[in-house]
Specification:
The complex is a heterodimer of chains A (81) and B (290). Chain A is mainly alpha-helical and 81 residues long. Chain A has helices at residues 3-17, 39-53, 59-64, 68-79. The chains are: A mainly alpha (81), B alpha/beta (290).
Chain lengths: 81, 290
């Protein structure tokens, strides 16, 4: 899956978990740009993404994601195996 | 004799394995708990206090027939609610009770389990329990107000010869666990004057309309040089919190000094899971009747 398609696919997850229907994801999006995205919701978001794509991030990966682009790249590599 | 010691250690080992199994069971069934657990520092998870809390939680759940599934369900539900309340608080500055938006309900037993789980999965609550154990001291008479699961008693029971406890409801588990303690299912209104060496007000004051009323009552209940170990909560919009302590504790300290206490120890405990625009924290105090 291409990065842009993946971001589109991830958008409903972010909107649902962060309770914000106006979220538009870009690779540069970070918790600082999105209201309600705090460290608790971050874990809930990760868990929701893992559930949707049936993949697992490591604890180290979760801590190192600096923006949505890094998360999506990691997700893409797991999906594409 | 050798056989007795072998039995003793075998029983102790079996107990430790059972409680570790309970926690492992929780973690294996909940990805959220697994992530939270993985993010904890290794020294916290290997602390003897951590194992003590695990054991107490497992025993409490066993006694009250609370399954791992139920514990996970209630903890997840609680976190989701807290998260929503944090978001609302960031916008309005009002606690849910203040805003009269308290749709969340939870049974006493489930709430006890949630609070014990938060000791195991969040650093700030573990820090409070650690400070509590560290500063309990050695004395004769201790009073615990707001008993909950009884975890605080368990963590400090070896420091005191006699334990008295008050809560509006007391779980039967506590009577089994602490048979020599005097536990009362009623409000503490100063039933015993000049009697206690230590009084514990842990995670209690934020649930009251006027915490200073209770602190005054405690002053009268203490012996000379007796101590109160207490915590306050700032910007923690939990569904049942009522009193908002200011970030700056100058006013709090002035008020407790006016009652007649001197401050022996204080520590600010910040929360690891911060919400946007709010900085929740607890303060832990040891204050002494001057």
């Amino acid at each position: 899956m291409e990065l842009n398609n993946l971001l589109q696919d991830l958008t409903p997850v972010f909107r649902s978990e962060l309770d914000d229907d106006n979220i538009v994801l870009t690779p540069e999006t970070t918790a600082d740009n999105v209201e309600n995205w705090d460290s608790i919701t971050n874990i809930q978001l990760i868990v929701a993404i893992e559930k949707k794509y049936k993949i697992r991030f490591t604890s180290k990966e979760i801590q190192q994601f600096k923006n949505v682009g890094e998360l999506a790249e990691s997700l893409r590599s797991k999906i594409n195996g | 004799m050798l056989v007795n010691w072998q039995n003793h250690y075998a029983q102790k080992l079996t107990g430790n394995i059972r409680c570790m199994e309970f926690l492992q069971n929780l973690i294996s069934q909940s990805r959220l708990l697994e992530v939270l657990h993985e993010n904890l520092p290794a020294e916290m998870k290997s602390d003897p206090l951590y194992l003590q809390v695990e054991k107490y939680l497992a025993a409490y759940c066993d006694f009250n027939n609370i399954s791992a599934e139920k514990a996970i369900h209630e903890y997840t539900r609680y976190i989701s609610q807290y998260n929503k309340d944090c978001k609302a608080f960031a916008k309005t500055g009002e606690y849910p009770l203040e805003a009269d938006k308290t749709e969340f309900t939870i049974s006493r037993e489930s709430y006890d389990v949630v609070l014990m789980l938060s000791v195991l999965f969040t650093r700030h609550r573990f820090s409070i329990m650690s400070l509590l154990q560290q500063y309990a001291g050695d004395a004769t008479e201790a009073l615990y107000i707001g008993l909950g699961s009884g975890l605080e008693i368990d963590l400090t029971k070896n420091s005191f010869r006699h334990i008295t406890g008050y809560d509006l409801t007391v779980n039967d588990f506590l009577a089994t666990k602490f048979p020599s303690a005097s536990l009362h299912s009623t409000l503490y209104t100063g039933q015993q004057a000049d009697h206690f060496d230590a009084i514990f007000l842990i995670e209690l004051l934020e649930h009251l309309d006027d915490p200073y009323d209770l602190i005054k009552i405690c002053y009268n209940s203490l012996k000379k040089n007796g101590r109160v170990l207490l915590t306050t909560a700032t910007d923690i919009p939990q569904f049942d919190h009522l009193y908002k302590f200011a970030v700056d504790h100058m006013d709090f300290e002035e008020k407790i000094k006016a009652i007649g206490f001197r401050i022996v120890f204080k520590e600010k405990i910040t929360h690891q899971y911060l919400s946007i625009n709010i900085s929740p924290c607890n303060h832990f105090y040891v204050i002494e009747k001057a």
